[in-house]
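Title: Prediction job returns without error message
Component: structure pipeline
Severity: low
Priority: P3
Assignee: unassigned

Description:
Job completed but the reporter wants confirmation the result is attached to the right record. Sequence as submitted:
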Amino acid sequence: MIWGSDDLISLSRFLTFERERERERERERESHYIMAKSTVELSRPANPTLKKPSFPKKRTTMSVFCLYSPKLSIFLLALCVSLFTLYHIQSLHARTTSSPPWSFVHQWERFTNCTQEHGSMAEKLRQSVTFLPLKDLRYADKARQGHTWFMSSTYDTREEGGVQYQQFPSESSKRRLLCLKGKETHDGSWNSYALAWPEALPFNATLLKGLTFVSYNHYDYDNIWHGLSAMVPFVAWHIRNGCESPSRWILYHWGELRFEMGPWLRTLTGATFGGAPNTESFEGVNDGQPLCFEKAVVMRHNEGGMSRDRRTETYDLMRCKARMYCNVSLEGRIPEVNKQGLPVIGMTLFMRTGSRSFTNESAVIGIFEKECAKVDGCRLMVAYSNNLTFCEQVSEILYVYFLSFIHKSLKHIK
């Protein structure tokens, strides 16, 4: 029950009225007592020795005492405090339901203003995103030097003896993401890139989750050696960063998009990273629609800058992964011996077809056969790389001590 101010006034009037009535009754009893006393004195005998008549004792003092007892005072005080408290609670509730307190309104206005300012700032940052050509023609005369002509406004990070790379987001990029735009396959200057904060991505941009490897190759991805050289720095980064594997690959040659790796490189990449590489084809993406990446690593120098130890570490991992992929093991392998009991020294001559092939293959093979015959236990094998599957090459290499390529260089690979 909620007591209002009118209820308190009525209660006060009621208590005053009750006290007045009690006083009237006491005055009536006193007047009756005086009248009775006067009657008795008039009828009293003349003999003073007679016993005085006994009359009831006065109750006036007792009645007043009962009306103003301490318990009643405490009760009335507690009642007044309770009513006062309920009145204020009711008033506060009425103010709360009718209109919010000024402080809450002020805080809400501040929050609204802050949200609007944040949205305005994000809009300004979004409008300030500037796309630059992936291939900067100003550096065409030194396309592979320094920051190169690919993403020329950015600079590489390099650890001692390690690869030169760029990572987005990072401290060097001020926590901005990499965004790419364009699907040009003939002129890399028509493709572009930009850096943007996650809260202010370019208009109509699509954010791709996961890790993206962005590779720049000055040559191509069909040639085994050029493709392998472009892949090696990513493997080195993979080793040093918790063996994190990419969700997709984006391949560039002179800033132009490439959508396929050569079969040999594709197989080796899949064996190394535990799955066939997903080469981004930009399918369903308009020419002017940006793609932004949650995390991206960019390589544009291939093996350049890597120390000998770091290269050895990287190639050891790829060899191990390739053998696991092809189910080939070195364990339990018994070295071959010839009829004289000497260990066989395997030498393989890898030949090529097409424009890079020898015009007089028989003469070249004859030279190697002649030199091999001078070494006890030497055995020469001639093979064409395009005629062997990836796993056949891995198996053959196990028995090779020397490998000769089309450039006529001998390499000791064991």
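Comment from assignee: result matches the submitted record. The first strand starts at residue 132 and ends at 133.
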